[in-house]
């Protein structure tokens, strides 16, 4: 008689980290809130503001890292969405900087880090974050893809209303004539709608336990700084 020993495959390091994070969700939220509050304080104090401006790309990386840490379905279609969101977001910005379409005439400052074609690579990450977070929140509430995409795009435009004055003051980017044109918001609406439709049409689990919390902190960060700087 031979004995067959059952063997089990150990969970991947990513799965182990995700399991830890889910069990310690409150701790992760506390850490995220502290980092955002420190960021607000740093940007609000002129003497140390330049150092915190330098840290802006790392702050974005922290946000997308926490977001992806709580994402549970790393299938091919999710990877296609992530690549499409970054490419369309970055590509529309590169087109905008060099032609004025679809956002208007503007130029990026050095704050957002490494640039290609005069556009920071991190700007694609910003588009990915905003579409994913707003899309995740609307996923449970709206069943029709086109309606969810429209509402998600409008949510992003409202967020951009809070982002723009702060971004200009902190030298993220600057507008020709120092005026934010209506085309900026119309461009945001159009590009966001396209990426949201891709998000809705591709099949992957869209529930994320920390989406609302991250979006709240990100939006509050810019809203508060509007009253400070």
Helix content: 55-70%
What percentage of amino acids are in beta strands?
under 5%
Radius of gyration (CA) equals 19 Å
Q: What is the straight-line distance between the termini?
A: 78 Å
SS-based structural class?
mainly alpha
Number of helices: 9
Order of helices and strands: HHHHHEEEHHEHH
Biggest sheet record: 2 strands, antiparallel
Adjacency order of strands in the biggest sheet: 1-4
How many strands? 4
How many discrete domains?
1
InterPro entries: CruF-like
Pfam families: Caroten_synth
Organism: Cecembia lonarensis (strain CCUG 58316 / KCTC 22772 / LW9)
Transmembrane segments: 26-45, 51-71, 78-101, 121-139, 146-170, 182-199, 211-228
Description of the structure:
It holds the Pfam family Caroten_synth. Keywords: Membrane, Transmembrane, Transmembrane helix. It comes from Cecembia lonarensis (strain CCUG 58316 / KCTC 22772 / LW9). With 229 residues, the protein is mainly α. The chain has one domain. It is 67% helix and 4% strand. It has 9 helices and 4 strands; from the N terminus they run αααααβββααβαα. A two-stranded antiparallel sheet has the order 1-4. It is globular, with a radius of gyration of 19 Å. The N and C termini lie far apart (78 Å).
Quick structural summary:
It comes from Cecembia lonarensis (strain CCUG 58316 / KCTC 22772 / LW9). The protein has 229 residues and is mainly alpha-helical.
């Amino acid at each position: 008689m031979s004995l067959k020993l059952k063997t089990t495959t150990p969970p991947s390091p990513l799965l182990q980290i995700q399991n830890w994070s889910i069990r310690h969700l409150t701790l992760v939220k506390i850490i995220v809130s502290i980092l955002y509050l420190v960021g607000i304080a740093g940007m609000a104090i002129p003497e140390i503001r330049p150092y915190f401006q330098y840290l802006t790309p790392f702050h974005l990386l922290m946000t997308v890292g926490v977001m992806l840490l709580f994402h549970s379905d790393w299938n091919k279609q999710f990877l296609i969405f992530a690549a499409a969101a970054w490419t369309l977001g970055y590509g529309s910005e590169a087109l905008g900087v060099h032609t004025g379409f679809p956002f208007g005439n503007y130029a990026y400052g050095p704050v957002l880090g490494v640039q290609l074609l005069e556009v920071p690579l991190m700007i694609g990450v910003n588009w990915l974050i905003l579409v994913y977070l707003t899309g995740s929140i609307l996923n449970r509430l709206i069943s029709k893809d086109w309606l969810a995409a429209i509402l998600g795009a409008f949510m992003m435009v409202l967020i951009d209303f809070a982002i723009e004055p702060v971004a200009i003051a902190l030298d993220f980017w600057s507008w020709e004539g120092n005026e934010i044109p209506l085309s900026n918001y119309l461009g945001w609406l159009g590009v966001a709608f396209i990426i949201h439709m891709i998000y809705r049409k591709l099949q992957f689990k869209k529930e994320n336990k920390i989406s609302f919390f991250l979006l709240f902190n990100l939006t509050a960060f810019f809203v508060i700084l509007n009253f400070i700087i």
